[in-house]
Amino acid sequence: MIILQQMLVLFLIMLAGFFAEKKEVLDEDTCKKVSWIVVNIANPSMILASVSGDSRIQPGDLALTVLVALIIFACLIGLAAVLPWLLRVDKSQYGVYRVMTVFSNIGFMGFPLLSALYGKESLLYAALFVLIYNVLIYTYGILCLDQNSAGNEKPGRKFLNSMKKIVNVGVLSAVGALILYFGNIHLPEIFTQIFDMFADLTAPLSMMVIGASFGQMSFRELVTDVRLLIFSGVKLLLIPIISMWALSWFVDNPILLGVCLVVLATPVGSMTAMLAQQYDCDSELSSRGVAVTTLLSVAAIPAVAVICRMMGISVM
User: Fold this and answer.
1) What pTM was estimated for this model as a whole?
2) DSSP code, position 268
3) CA 170, CA 138: separation in Å to the nearest integer?
C-alpha cells in the first residue's frame, strides 16, 4: 500500500508536467532551465539536508554500510560496462544505458519508502549510499553522458576537461556533507531550513520535467521498445534478486538489507534524465527508461520483497 501510494504521488506530479507540456508551458528550453535548477541547486541541497539531523550510526554499522555501498556500485558499474553490448543497443546509447543501470531513484522514491517502513534511522544508512551515489553520478555519470567530449581532443586536454567536470557542485556538496557528518558539525538553523526548502523542490521539479518529456513521446514506441523492456526486467528483477541473495550471506542487519533492496529495486533515477537533458545525450531514451521502469516497479518492488522473504531474507 505504501509503495502504491508513493507511485501514485510520483505519477500525479508527472501528469502535471505532461499537461504543462501540452499547454506549451514546459517546452524543451524551459525543461533545460528547470533541469539546471534540479542538478545544480535542489539536488545538492538534498545531499546536504540528509546529514543535518542529530542521529548517528554505530561505527561498525557505518563501516559495513560504506563497504556494502562501494561493493554494490562497483558491481553495477562492472555490469553496466557489458549490459549495453549484451542487449545489442546502438553504440550512441551506451552511455545512457550504463547510467540507467547504475543509478536508481533512491532519493525521490527510496527515501519516502524507507521512512515509512523503517523510520528515520534507515535514512542515515540511505544517506551514505546517496553520498556515494552523488559522487558517482556527477563523475562517472557525466563522463558517460557527455558525448561532446568524445571528439578529436588530445589525451591531455581531454583529461583536463574530464577533471573540470568532476569538480562540480554535486561533488562539492557530497564532500561537504561528509565533512559535516564525520566532523559532527551542526549548521545554523537558517541554513538547515534553506537546504530543506531547496531539497523539497527536487522531486516535484524532476518529475514534472520527466512528465513533460513523456508528453513528447510516442506511446506506441514506449511499449514496443523491446530492448528497454528487457533492460527493465534485468534492472528491476534480476539484479535485485541476485544481489540480495549474495548480500544475505554476510549482512544480517534488517535495516541495512532493506536499504539495499530499495537501492537495487527502485526504478531508473530521474537524475539520469536531468543530466541527459543538460548534456544533450538522448534525453528521450533516459526519460522513457524512467517512465517504463517507474511503471513496472509498482509490481516489481513488492515481487522482489516477496521473493526475498521466500529465500529467508529479512526485508520489508
Assistant:
1) 0.78
2) B
3) 6
